[in-house]
Each structure stands twice: as C-alpha cells, then as structure tokens.
From TrEMBL:
It comes from the Bacteria. GO terms for molecular function: hydrolase activity. It holds the Pfam family Peptidase_S15. It comes from Duganella alba. This is Alpha/beta hydrolase. SUPFAM superfamilies: alpha/beta-Hydrolases. InterPro entries: AB_hydrolase_fold, Xaa-Pro-like_dom. Gene3D superfamilies: alpha/beta hydrolase (3.40.50.1820).
C-alpha cells in the first residue's frame, strides 16, 4: 500500500485541498492528475482519477492531485478551466521545487484533460515541457483543447455518450495522433478501469511488465 499525505496550498482563489501519493521506493518522476468537471460531481477521488494515480504510483512516480475550485475543501468557484489551469500550474511549481531533478508527467480525465493540455502548452512555451501526457476521456469539442505532443497516451471508451469518440477523432485527425479505444467502455469506464492502468504501464516505455505487474494492472 502506497503512502498518502493530505496537503493545502495557496491557489489563485484561496486554499487548495490536495493529496500526494508516494511510491514504495525513491520516485523516478512526478505526476499531476486532474479530475473531471467539478459542476458534475468531479473530485480528486473520482475513480478514473484514482486509477491514474495508482498507475503512476506503480510506475514509481510521486503523484499530486487537487480538488478544483469549489470542490471539497478547496476555496473559490468554478472558473471554466482558466483558473483551474492556473491552480494546476501552481501545483506544478510547488512539486518541481520539492523534486527539482525529476521529470513531470501530466494526466487527466474528461474536464481534467482540458486543464492538462493547456498546462502542457504553457510549460512547453516556458521551455519546461512535461515529460508526457495521459488523457482519458479527452474533452474534445466540450472545451477548446490545446494541441498535444505526438507521444501523448489517449484512452477513450467506445460507448462514451458524454464525449463521443467521433469528436475525439475529429480533434486528433489534424494532429495525426492515435487513440486507444476500449470496446464497450462508457465515459466513466465502468468495469473497465483495469484497461487504463494496463495500457499506460505498457506504453510508458518500461520494456514490458513482469507477470506480477500484469496481474496488478488487470485489477479494477
């Protein structure tokens, strides 16, 4: 069981509530995970966000999640992704000060993908690009997504009726970036969470998983 630690951090609209999850060994990187839309029940404890956290912890990353403005104990009100991106940038700065030698990966689900693509664009423009992005249920056509690096890992449900697959393909086609489609999966990946963990771990460049890791990745 990995160690978790709650934290509060000053954001653009007041205090932000968050959690850091630590791997069992010395971290090889930092990952920031962004949750789905706060006005529709999205929190940092959303099951897809937690799956992303557990995946990165399994890869040896120290993972930070926050509740966006107006969620849980985080102060402020929803800012349509603009203030949320600013807040995630503050978390990025804080974590890079704590772990200055480590690369930083960005991961998000649904509305969180909108935040992370714009944070990635901002970091790249500043000359401090993210190591890699993982986007699950990318919010194409729901919000104005930024273009993404070619090595981004995208995972989408075949039967997503919140963000239809065709919208994601329309967004990705000009960028010539592929997406992993999980057959039968809805927007929230009910009974399909193991696919998220398995694919991210396999594609992260570890040179293959051990039998034990494969078994772990298969469990929802």
């Amino acid at each position: 069981m990995n160690k978790s630690e709650k934290f509060t951090l000053a954001g653009g609209a007041g205090q932000m509530e968050g959690v850091i999850d630590y791997p069992e060994s010395e971290p090889r990187g930092v990952a920031l995970v962004a949750h789905p839309h706060p006005l529709y029940g999205g929190t940092m404890d959303n099951k897809v966000a937690v799956t992303l956290m557990r995946t990165f912890v399994g890869l040896g990353y120290v993972v930070a999640r926050i509740n966006f403005r107006g969620v849980g104990q985080s102060e402020g009100v929803h800012d349509h992704g603009l203030g949320e991106t600013d807040d995630m940038a503050i978390v990025h700065h804080w974590m890079t000060e704590k772990y200055p030698a480590l690369p930083v990966a960005l991961a998000g689900f649904s509305f969180g993908t909108f935040v992370q693509t714009h944070l990635a664009k901002r970091l790249a423009a500043a000359g401090t690009p993210a190591e890699r992005l993982v986007l699950v249920g990318a919010a194409a056509k729901k919000w104005e997504m930024a273009d993404i690096p070619a090595d981004t890992i995208l995972i989408h449900g075949e039967q997503d009726d919140t963000i239809p697959l065709r919208d994601v393909l329309d967004w990705l086609r000009p960028q010539d970036i592929p997406v992993i489609v999980i057959p039968g999966a809805d927007h929230f990946f009910h009974r399909k969470l193991g696919h998220i963990k398995r694919w991210v771990m396999q594609l992260w460049g570890r040179g293959g998983l051990t039998e034990a890791e494969t078994d772990t990745a298969s469990a929802d």
